[in-house]
């Protein structure tokens, strides 16, 4: 019995030491925590609060002036869910994601494998040229392409006509049938470099010794690609897929700079749909409450699509790791 208090003291001693050391470390690093305060304040102001405010104002018929007093319940949500133009914008946004996932990702993977070859001369220069559109302002890209694709005097139409490929100029951005495919191609070109960098970073994680061992065993290029490169890229490919999906759902700046959601809403996406009701100066009375409801609905659908992907991607990740 005499040894029991000392045993308790010995057991509690390390715990108190750890607690004291943690508190002491927090005091020692108080300036580090202090430097985080501006970031936390900005995060609350520009991320947390807008999310909460969107939910709140979506239940009001509010024009953005004065306090929101006209409570209308779920009427905004009912109007959004029954609006053909909203579903048209949602469909176009989803098409951007499909193109990014099923066209951009495979093409960038092929290009990354080519540029990852150490025997390729000038590969760093090629990477630079492919990445330049990413760091170029999207508004500038949109304006330049709008000028180049102009049916009256645009560079592209002049080249096509001079080579005899077309007889009459094509209104790439002014026709309902060609506007969306044209913007999709521009968006593919603009975001090609960032996905390429993702794949290049993923390829760098594969040890060179594995490739050397495969060559010693007599494996060909196709066998190395299908049995080594692709399986080992699966875990990181899941992350790339999620990043690509999220970034592709909001091509607002490109659409606004090229077509302004026209012609006849052929290139309208959810972001431009929300902007039109909240900030478009052509509207006599902005409908901030309705725009907030549209944003909430779109956010919920995006969240649901992400959650649906999660278990499938997790299972695929487990297979890739094993």
TrEMBL record:
Q: Which UniProt keywords apply?
A: Cell membrane, Membrane, Sugar transport, Transmembrane, Transmembrane helix, Transport
Q: Which family does it belong to?
A: Belongs to the binding-protein-dependent transport system permease family.
**InterPro entries on file:** ABC_transporter_permease, MetI-like, MetI-like_sf
What protein am I looking at?
Multiple sugar transport system permease protein
* Any GO BP: transmembrane transport
Topology class, membrane: Multi-pass membrane protein
A cellular component annotation (GO) from this entry: plasma membrane
> In what residue span(s) does the ABC transmembrane type-1 domain sit?
90-309
- Location within or outside the cell: Cell membrane
Residue ranges annotated as transmembrane are 33-57, 94-116, 128-149, 179-203, 224-245, 288-308
Where is the region Disordered? 1-21
| Species in which this protein is naturally found | Microlunatus parietis
Q: Which domain of life is it from?
A: Bacteria
């Amino acid at each position: 019995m005499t040894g029991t208090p000392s045993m308790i003291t010995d057991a509690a001693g390390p715990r108190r030491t750890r607690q004291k050391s943690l508190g002491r470390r927090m005091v020692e690093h108080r300036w580090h925590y202090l430097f985080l305060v501006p970031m936390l304040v900005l995060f609350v102001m520009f991320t947390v609060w807008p999310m909460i405010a969107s939910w709140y104002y979506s239940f009001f018929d509010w024009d953005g002036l004065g306090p929101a007093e006209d409570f209308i319940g779920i009427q905004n949500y009912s109007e959004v869910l029954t609006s053909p133009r909203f579903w048209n914008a949602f469909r176009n946004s989803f098409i951007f994601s499909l193109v990014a996932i099923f066209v951009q990702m495979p093409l960038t993977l092929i290009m990354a494998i080519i540029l990852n070859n150490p025997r390729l001369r000038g590969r760093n220069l090629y990477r630079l040229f492919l990445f330049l559109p990413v760091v170029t302002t999207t508004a500038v890209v949109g304006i330049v392409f709008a000028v180049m694709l102009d049916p009256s005097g645009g560079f592209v139409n002049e080249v096509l006509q001079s080579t005899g490929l077309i007889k009459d100029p094509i209104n790439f951005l002014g026709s309902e049938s060609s506007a969306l495919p044209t913007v999709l191609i521009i968006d593919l070109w603009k975001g090609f470099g960032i996905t390429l960098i993702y794949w290049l970073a993923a390829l760098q994680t594969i040890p060179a010794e594995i490739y050397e061992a495969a060559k010693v065993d007599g494996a060909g290029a196709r066998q190395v690609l299908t049995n080594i490169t692709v399986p080992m890229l699966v875990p990181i490919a899941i992350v790339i897929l999620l990043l690509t999906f999220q970034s592709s759902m909001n091509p607002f700046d490109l659409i606004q700079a090229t077509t302004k959601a026209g012609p006849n809403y052929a290139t309208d996406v959810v972001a431009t749909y929300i902007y039109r009701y909240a900030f478009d100066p052509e509207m006599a009375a902005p409908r901030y409450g309705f725009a907030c409801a549209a944003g909430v609905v779109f956010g919920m659908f995006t969240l649901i699509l992400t959650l649906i992907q999660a278990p499938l991607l997790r299972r695929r990740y487990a297979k890739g790791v094993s």
